[in-house]
Amino acid sequence: MHFQLTEEQRALREGTRELLAGRFGRDALRAAVDADTPAVDRGLWRELGEAGLFSLCLPESEGGVGLGLPDAVVVFEEVGRALVPGPLVATFLAAGEVPGAAAGEAVVTTPYGSLLPWRDDANVVRGDASRARPIASADPLTPLHALPGPAPVPLEATLLYAAEQLGSAGRTLDMAVQHAREREQFGSPIGSFQAVKHLCAEMLVRVEVARAAVYAAAVTADPVEVAAAELLADEAAVQGARDCLQVHGGMGFTWEADVHLHLKRAWVRAELGGSARDAEETLAAAL
Amino acid sequence: MDLTYTDEEEGFRARLREWLGGVLPTLPPKPSPDDWPGRRAYDMGWQRRLYDAGYGEVHWDASPTKRLIFLEETEKAGAPYVGANFVGLLHAGPTIAAEGSPGQRDRWLAPILRGDEVWCQGFSEPDAGSDLAALRTKARREGDEYVISGSKIWTSHAEVADWCELLVRTDPSAPKHRGISWLAMPMDAPGITVRPLRTLAGSTEFAEMFLDDVRVPVGNRVGEENDGWRVTMVTLSFERGTAFVGEVVACRRVLGELAAHAKKTGRWDDAVLRRELGLLSAEFGALWRLTQWNVSEAQATGGVPGVGGSVFKLRYSHARQRLYEAAARVLGGAGALDTDQEWTLDRLSSLSYTIAAGTSQIQRNIVAERILGLPRSSKGGR
Ligand SMILES: Cc1cc2nc3c(=O)[nH]c(=O)nc-3n(C[C@H](O)[C@H](O)[C@H](O)COP(=O)(O)OP(=O)(O)OC[C@H]3O[C@@H](n4cnc5c(N)ncnc54)[C@H](O)[C@@H]3O)c2cc1C
Question: Nearest C-alpha to atom 2 of ligand 1 is from which residue?
Answer without folding.
Answer: B356
